[in-house]
TrEMBL record:
Name of the protein described by the UniProt record: Endoglucanase
InterPro entries tied to this protein: 6-hairpin_glycosidase_sf (IPR008928), 6hp_glycosidase-like_sf (IPR012341), Glyco_hydro_9 (IPR001701), Glyco_hydro_9_Asp/Glu_AS (IPR033126), Glyco_hydro_9_His_AS (IPR018221)
Signal peptide start and end residues: 1-32
Organism: Hevea brasiliensis
Gene3D superfamilies per UniProt: 1.50.10.10
PANTHER family: ENDO-1,4-BETA-GLUCANASE (PTHR22298)
SUPFAM superfamilies recorded: Six-hairpin glycosidases (SSF48208)
Length: 497
């Protein structure tokens, strides 16, 4: 066991590591002062209302949006209306939507007590997703995983309310497996069942029962959905990482939600087969390894599950790989202190990894433990500081002095890559705007007419530079899976700043 440390850092023989950590965490020359985390929390949840598909409810707060995609599923005789548009386009991709639901639920499970009056809105955000996930899993042995043709949609720039592109429905089944998206859907349903356990017991039971059924389908018919549906889902949400991690992820959430021995035994039995230790510092809609290790490690830290000890070791390795100053080939920091990983939309990595840092720091705190990293240790307080530094960067403590959350702070992105935000609202322009007619708005240098409050964009490049321009979609496009982990982070810091 690593020695206890009452400081943020344990003993640091490697002076360079200590200096790097201190510079990044505590000497912040570009600080904009204290942040209103409660305001940012409110806005981060409000963002999801701007992403809603289907018939909007009477209490809809984002008024520049209207009903859209009201015939989704009709081509296959199903009602598949509802759910979320994942980003700035008008497609409903099931894989990232399910991951978004899982992370929103995890945030409520761990940090809902810190959300205050925003808790009810966070729960509504989850339910908007789970109502849809229940629709797409109604038929046993089938999961409808996408509505809309991404190629025709991406060839247009039009409001969701005007959408006239083809709304093809794509599914997985026994002959066309998709263990990745089905495993993530099972995880989302199981995690949400915990959220609703005391709020809506009957709904919670429905979610858990459906999660059990969907997971059984995912495990029985193994395969990647990007093999079965390659032309529809690639390169948009092609599963590069494989489906094995989603099976462990789904089993982990089912174990947490149901406490059934079969899922514990499944995890232990399949840990090596499903590569639990792979890519320890990856976590997002495509790769669940770091999340699996952190989630399962809680039971080890609570002294309840020694048979999961290997997951705890992996979680510790994940933490060590993120510490600034400790060289790791897959994790870098920008000069301004932002976590940076290869691939597009970097902010998805920032919020997801920061969420894990915070969640694990809480588990460590309750167990009175630290993380051993070679000749030093990392305390729970250090992990919280590192997570908070990332959140503060997003909110404006960065070289650009820009908040990367739209509507928060004095300076934020004005030209985000988002159709509904960049085109005039139906209220302002009732006439239909066709597929190509929206191009002039896409290319316009003017700010978006509809401020998509709470949207967090893909963010700056590795040099901290940010082009506030719609065509630079990797930097300027918001996504639900950037915001979902941020909700839990902001909840915690709103109560502990």
């Amino acid at each position: 066991m690593a020695p206890k440390s009452h400081s943020l850092l344990g003993s640091f023989p490697a002076i360079g590591v200590a200096v790097s950590l201190l510079l990044l965490l505590f000497v912040n020359p570009i600080s904009c002062g204290g942040h209103d985390y409660q305001d940012a929390l409110r806005k981060s949840i409000l963002f999801f209302e701007g992403q809603r598909s289907g018939r909007l409810p009477p209490d809809q707060r984002v008024k520049w949006r209207r009903d859209s995609a009201l015939h989704d599923g009709f081509s296959v005789g199903k009602d598949l209306t509802g759910g979320y548009y994942d980003a700035g386009d008008n497609i409903k991709f099931g894989f990232p939507m399910a991951f978004t639901t899982t992370l929103l639920s995890w945030g409520i499970i761990d940090f809902g007590r810190n959300m205050g009056p925003e808790l009810k809105n966070a729960v509504k955000a989850v339910k908007w997703a789970t109502d849809y996930l229940l629709k797409v899993t109604t038929v046993p042995g089938v999961v409808f995983v996408q509505v809309g043709d991404a190629y025709s949609d991406h060839n247009c720039w039009e409001r969701p309310e005007d959408m006239d592109t083809i709304r093809t429905v794509y599914k997985i089944d026994g002959s066309h497996p998709g263990s990745d998206v089905a495993g993530e859907t099972a995880a989302a349903l199981a995690a949400a069942s915990i959220v609703f356990r005391s709020r809506e017991p009957a709904y919670s039971r429905l979610l858990l029962d459906r999660a059990v059924r969907v997971f059984e389908f995912a495990d029985t018919h193994r395969g990647a959905y990007s093999s079965s549906l390659h032309s529809a889902v690639c390169p948009f949400y092609c599963d590069v990482n494989g489906y094995q991690d989603e099976l462990l992820w789904g089993a982990a959430w089912l174990h947490k939600a149901s406490r059934r021995r079969q899922y514990r035994e499944y995890i232990v039995k399949n840990e090596v087969v499903l590569h639990a230790g792979d890519t320890i510092n990856e976590f997002g809609w495509d790769n669940k390894h770091a999340g699996i290790n952190v989630l399962i490690s809680k039971e080890v830290l609570m002294g309840k599950a020694d048979y999961f000890e290997s997951f705890k070791r992996n979680a510790d390795d994940f933490i060590c790989s993120l510490l600034p100053g400790i060289s790791h080939p897959q994790v870098h920091y920008s000069p301004g202190g932002l976590i940076f990983k290869a691939g597009g939309s970097n902010m998805q990595h920032v919020t997801s990894l920061s969420f894990l840092l915070l969640a694990y720091s809480n588990y460590l705190s309750h167990a009175n433990k630290v993380v051993p990293c070679g000749e030093t240790t990392a305390s729970p307080a250090l992990l919280k500081q590192l997570a908070q530094r990332q959140v503060d960067y997003i909110l404006g403590d960065n070289p650009m002095r820009m908040s990367y959350m739209v509507g928060y702070g004095e300076r934020y992105p004005q030209r985000i890559h988002h159709r509904g935000s960049s085109l005039p609202s139906v209220q302002a322009h009732p006439a239909h705007i066709g597929c190509k007619a929206g191009s002039r708005y896409f290319l316009s240098p003017n700010p978006n007419p509809n401020v998509h409050v709470g949207a967090v964009v893909g963010g700056p490049n590795v040099s901290d530079a940010f082009p506030d321009s719609r065509p630079f979609f990797q930097e300027s496009e918001p996504t639900t899976y950037i915001n979902a982990p941020l909700v839990g982070l902001l909840a915690y810091f709103s109560a502990h700043s």
